[in-house]
Amino acid sequence: MKKRSITLKYAVSAIVLIFILSCFYLPAIAAVPKVIINGTELKIDTNPVVIDGRTLVPLRGIFEALGATVYWDGNTKTITAQKNGATIKLTIGQNTALKNGAKIHLDVSPKIISGRTMVPLRFVAEALGAQVSWDGKTNTVNIQSQDEKTTQNRIAARVVRVIDGDTVEVEIDGKRETVRMIGVDTPETVHPEKEVEYYGKEASNFTKSKLEGKDVQLELDVQERDQYGRLLAYIWVGGELFNETLVKEGYAKVSTYPPNVKYVDRFTAAEREAREAGRGLWAGQNEQPVKTTGKYVGSIESNKYHLPTCRWAEQIKPENRIWFDSEEEAQKAGYEPCKVCNP
């Protein structure tokens, strides 16, 4: 009888324990917050997590959704993101972040969880100029990006044909338009007066794999058409600026023609990253003739070009020098004239 009583006692204790655990853990599973950006739910392959009352989300998912360019330094475990002149830096495990060099305290540090880099949602969104609010009733984080008005002004289109790495044919409300991407230049493959250039086919195939048959948004700049009547545009695929992707992945170089210069800083930074990483067409640069002289000189670490006799030119390390035969070539590559030597 005593043995039976003890067994019953353990059974009751087990039931109570299961009940208590369910009270704690079941709500936690159901409490994964939903993230809404400009009215659209953020689709990410890893659920947000809540630590000390703060929501953390996957690194690339949030930055790309907010239209920021993000870089990861595996050696220092540092995340750098740039958007509209704002640069923020976060380091895994550190509760201090930087925004344009100013230190900001974080309630919870970025973390690597199950192999994914997770960053604090509110800090990232607000640092990039968005407004963040919390709806406790629906367990939802609402983010209103300052870019929403710009997004609403974009033109919906479908890419029906890829002509070249930087040129596509789209359909807008039943009408077809040829679109030349602003600010970038991929090697030629279909130019009537030029042979197929190095890495041209790879660039064309990349654009085809990413855009052909896809719904995109076109963002115009100051000048809407070029001398050939082509529509000049930035192409957005969701939160991704495809012009920038071409440069960042090494399929294109920066090619800027004022007044269409809205994203020139982003493109220049992307090209620098691709060059330093040896991606795409930069991987074969050692196989190509490298200029060692020219009329003007710039640095891969800045966006200015100089006369070779300029005092700033003399301070450029030899390994960082890039030479140009003309001002047009320098400006096409995204460089601006030095205000000291006025080339």
Automatic annotation (TrEMBL):
EC class name: hydrolase
Pfam families: Ada_Zn_binding, Cu_amine_oxidN1, SNase
One MF term in the entry's GO annotations: 3' overhang single-stranded DNA endodeoxyribonuclease activity
Boundaries of every TNase-like domain copy: 153-284
Superkingdom: Bacteria
UniProt xrefs under InterPro entries: Ada-like_dom_sf, Ada_DNA_repair_Zn-bd, Cu_amine_oxidase-like_N, Mao_N_sf, SNase_OB-fold_sf, Staphylococal_nuclease_OB-fold, Thermonucl_AS
Stretches assigned to coiled coil: none
Biological process terms in GO annotation: DNA repair; regulation of DNA-templated transcription
EC assignment: 3.1.31.1
UniProt keyword list: Activator, Endonuclease, Hydrolase, Nuclease
PANTHER family: EBNA2 BINDING PROTEIN P100, SERINE_THREONINE-PROTEIN KINASE 31
Name recorded for this polypeptide: Thermonuclease
Source species: Fervidicola ferrireducens
